[in-house]
Amino acid sequence: MTSSHIFFIPGMIMIGMFLGFLLGARAVRNQVDLQKRRDEEREAVRAARAAKRGAAAAETSPASGKSAAVAAPVVAVTAPPDDEPAASEKKPTAEPAKKQGKGKRG
Description:
Elements: H1 4-58
């Protein structure tokens, strides 16, 4: 092994570290810019969505008191009359349908 290796090997390591630092910094810069752009796009979409919700809420007519949203129907639950047994006490009157034969498979 010659004495030039004492300078050559550490020199190559230093050049590799320098190039790695430059390329790594560039990649990080690109990633930060990309993330910033994505955040701005998300914020724009959120603002548009909020404006759309605000416009839908503004369509509500204060005079009639009705809103643009559809309310769920109200269903009243009543008990069966006294002369009729409850659903859990009823017995089935008809037999369940029987399975038909397999028939020919062809």
